[in-house]
Amino acid sequence: MSDETPICSAKGCRTAAEWVLAWNNPKIHTPDRRKTWLACAEHREHLSQFLGVRGFLKDVVPLAEWESAP
């Protein structure tokens, strides 16, 4: 893994990211704003649930697809 390899956002995880979790906190962000967390395969569900319970999760997209989007 190079220094430029995106890594998972889960606490303590150093695994390469495979997924982008796009989210927004409606109390502080405009509706079109998207913040992102990165997730490895192991932590995708856990991070998605964390954001989903709070009503923040907007989309889960493979990292390669996110990077190639215009």
UniProtKB/TrEMBL annotation:
Protein name: Acetone carboxylase
Species this chain originates from: Streptomyces silvensis
